Amino acid sequence: MTHEQLLQLIHSDDVDFPPVTEELALRAYIALLSRIDNRVDALYVFACLNLLNAYVKQAPKESEFSKRYQFKRHVVTCLEEVIRKRLSDVALYYSPDVTYVKILALQFSFHHVAPSRLLTSYAASPHNTLQEWSGIRLQPSAVVIMEWAGQLRASRSFPK
Question: How do the domains of the chain map onto residue ranges?
Fold first, then answer.
């Protein structure tokens, strides 16, 4: 599936997307240990973060996963890795209120990401290019996006 086909699927009103299960959340959590060396790696890791964000919002508060998982800490780590690697084909906008990461035609958003020294420095730099929210909510289709990004990464395909 191309990213254009994925976007059409996400926009479709008559698709029932699969739910985010704890098994998928654990798989996504483990994937956060992956290195980000290029935009396909970044796409996969941020797709995993998107899935985890969706899962934490729906999971019972008493679940062990919800109690132990510190989502925002992992967002900071992944953002910092993208900044350090200077991946030119990953557009990143950081502010303490909202952070946008655009890879291909997908824009991932994260709210209230705590500043780190590197994120604060990046926010003041000319590389921190303002992005407007695309208006596309990716969490409802998080499973499909993560699976698509994982297949893309496994095939080592680099779409234009």
Answer: 3-10+20-155
